[in-house]
């Protein structure tokens, strides 16, 4: 059975990839946050402000281990994320993608659609 070729726009449905993190009201790029965390971890005598920052990162990334924190703060290249989304959603054609907004193998829904 041949499928008709179809031009697909990806990422579908306006998917956005967060590359920034809000500290207070100021957005900061993830790589800068990771670099700062790494510098603080490797520092012999971090300041009180640095320790507060590190504590926020531990809570945000749900870990208390320095190595694990740096691993969790590492971002994935957008090209890899898009390729994975394309594979797992059959380029936006799968039933799970269309009905459940399932792009990466996780079922999600809108509470309003259940009412």
Please explain how this structure is put together.
With 115 residues, the protein is mainly alpha-helical. The protein folds into two domains: 20-73, no CATH class; 77-114, no CATH class. Helix content is 48%, strand content 7%. The protein has six helices and two strands; from the N terminus they run E-E-H-H-H-H-H-H. The protein has helices spanning 30-42, 48-60, 66-73, 78-88, 95-100, 111-114; strands at 20-23, 26-29. The chain has a two-stranded antiparallel sheet. A hairpin with a 2-residue loop joins strand 1 (20-23) and strand 2. The longest helix is centred in the first third of the chain and has 13 residues, at 30-42. The mean pLDDT is 75.
Alpha carbon gyration radius: 19 Å
Q: Which overall shape is indicated by the principal axes computed on the Cα atoms?
A: elongated
Mean pLDDT: 75
Could you give the distance between the termini?
A: 39 Å
Strand line-up across the major sheet: 1-2
Number of domains: 2
Summed up, the helix count is 6
Content of β-strand: 5-15%
Which regions have little confidence, pLDDT < 50, spanning 5+ residues? none
Largest sheet report: 2 strands, antiparallel
């Amino acid at each position: 059975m041949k499928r008709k070729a179809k031009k697909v726009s990806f990422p579908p449905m306006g998917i956005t990839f967060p590359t920034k993190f809000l500290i207070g009201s100021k957005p900061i790029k993830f790589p800068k946050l990771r670099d700062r965390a790494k510098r603080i971890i490797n520092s012999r005598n971090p300041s009180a402000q640095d320790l507060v920052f590190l504590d926020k990162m531990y809570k945000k990334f749900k870990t208390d281990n320095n190595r694990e924190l740096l691993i969790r703060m590492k971002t994935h290249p957008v090209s890899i994320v898009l390729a994975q989304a394309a594979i797992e959603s059959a380029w936006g054609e799968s039933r799970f993608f269309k009905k459940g907004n399932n792009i990466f193998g996780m079922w999600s829904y809108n509470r309003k659609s259940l009412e």
